Amino acid sequence: MELSEGRPLDTEGRLEKEVRVYDLLDQLGITYWRTDHEAAGTMEDCNEIDRILDVLICKNLFLCNRQKTKFYMLMMPGDKPFKTKELSAQIHSARLSFAPEEYMEEYLDITPGSVSIMGLMNDTDNQVQLLVDEDVLQGEFLGCHPCINTSSLKLRTKDVFEKFLPAVHHEYMVVRLGQEEEK
């Protein structure tokens, strides 16, 4: 695995949704670095990718309420534990659970193992609320998939939150996870 700046020179054989990510980032003037790799479906798979990108890849969880009427994407550091009770209290939504994969595909055009903030570009009706752990905002860079888990991107955190999110018409809510461990 090696790190390359920008989009792949040849996009033949790549999924359309991946190429759309590169197109949008280029259109927005966002600098990014990319590495291609075997499918990374777990945080353990991402450890080697983290070393190549020299950044912590976020754990991205696709969640919903019990009625499946509200959907959330949670971005958090991969090494932080996730407790639904803690998050539910902060967003005032009882009974959070992992959303069924058909909603992930319908709203984000993403399959399990590829959940990424980049998928919000496909959520044109704003069905998914972005939740971001405060620690994600502290780093200069963040890592994510371009809607497919066989490539990973390194982007400036500031560019993601100040250029990308406004361009895809999404706002975010900051949450603080891991507080229970601090007590």
TrEMBL record:
Top-level taxonomic group: Bacteria
Keywords assigned by UniProt, alphabetized: Aminoacyl-tRNA synthetase, Ligase
Annotated Pfam families: tRNA_edit
GO molecular function: aminoacyl-tRNA deacylase activity; aminoacyl-tRNA ligase activity
Gene3D superfamilies referenced in this protein's UniProt entry, alphabetically: YbaK/aminoacyl-tRNA synthetase-associated domain
Listed InterPro entries: ProX/PRXD1, YbaK/aa-tRNA-synt-asso_dom_sf, YbaK/aa-tRNA-synth-assoc-dom
Residue ranges annotated for the YbaK/aminoacyl-tRNA synthetase-associated domain, each copy included: 37-160
Signal peptide: none
Family label: Belongs to the PRORSD1 family.
Protein name: Aminoacyl-tRNA synthetase
Organism the protein comes from: Eubacterium ramulus
